Amino acid sequence: AQTVTQSQPEMSVQEAETVTLSCTYDTSESDYYLFWYKQPPSRQMILVIRQEAYKQQNATENRFSVNFQKAAKSFSLKISDSQLGDAAMYFCAYRGYSGGGADGLTFGKGTHLIIQP
Amino acid sequence: ETGVTQTPRHLVMGMTNKKSLKCEQHLGHNAMYWYKQSAKKPLELMFVYSLEERVENNSVPSRFSPECPNSSHLFLHLHTLQPEDSALYLCASSQLAGPTDTQYFGPGTRLTVL
């Protein structure tokens, strides 16, 4: 079974600074997908960024980027120019590839990100 | 309404009650999911429906009974729950358009079992 590990229960960063959240995973599959979701106090789970394992290029979405190291099974999220609205729980998630079928996500325990004004 | 909606947002029930959680997606998706988010555990997948058929039951106790009457609606029927079932229940949907389908989540139902 796949597992996802987020080793940082909580991180704190000054507004406008850069922060990196860590995620490692364990899988025997070669094709899979990785996601970062954000859950603010409203509890709505929001997709931040996703990465296909077959792509060597790291995904980026505005201030959010990932460092995907397939051999090391590492998938970290970098948030640049941190803003107060970035404060939330961040979850790393894994999904295997089953040829387009429906597959559930395997989540890490999350990292609580605090933005200091 | 847009996205994925869930009702009720909060629910308090006794162990002998029967209640249902409702999820509705307005995204034209064809797969739906139930997840459980407890205070001390990672989000856990409970059920997966693809094209209105259940394709996964992740060892969930029978006191939880899902129902997917059509591609837009998903229910979770609750019966004889235990206090440890208190959690946030999240619904998600996705479009089976290929390998990169993304799951979009509703706001969740906060369930308290007394």
Notes on the structure:
The complex is a heterodimer of chains A (117) and B (114). By secondary structure, chain A is an all-beta fold. In chain A, 0% of the residues lie in helices and 51% in strands. In chain A, strands 2, 5, 6, 10, 11 and 12 form a six-stranded mixed sheet that branches. In chain A, a hairpin with a 4-residue loop joins strand 8 and strand 9 (74-79). Chain A is globular and about 45 Å long. Chain A starts with a strand and ends with a strand. Chain B is mainly β. Chain B is built from no helices and eleven strands. Chain B has strands spanning 4-7, 10-13, 18-25, 31-37, 44-50, 53-57, 64-70, 73-79, 87-94, 104-105, 109-113. In chain B, a hairpin with a 6-residue loop joins strand 4 (31-37) and strand 5. The mean pLDDT of chain B is 90. Chain A binds chain B through residues 4, 31, 33, 35, 37, 42-47, 50, 52, 91, 97, 99-110, and chain B through 31, 33, 35, 41-43, 45, 48-50, 55-56, 58, 88, 90, 92, 94, 96-108, 110.
